[in-house]
Amino acid sequence: MFLFLSDTVFAYNRASGKLIENIRVRPMVAYVLFEGCAKYTKIYLTNDYYKSMLSVALTAAAAGKKVDVVFQNNASCATTEAQIEFIDVKF
User: What is the per-residue pLDDT for 8?
Assistant: First the structure.
């Protein structure tokens, strides 16, 4: 028996080639608005991984770089306050 892994197994939704238009930082959460998205997505600042993700988002936004973003729980940037799973910067 074989186990095939894919994005659908983990229920992630991806947005590719997006610019970051705005970032709002609050004490325990950061809100990120991506190009073409009507709603902010969020990054909880509860551990070093998520704090590093915020740093990556800030750097990409300042440099004007496009990013690929993956959301948790099959959400999208159209979902109210979708949580970001990870961000990849396109160089």
Answer: 42
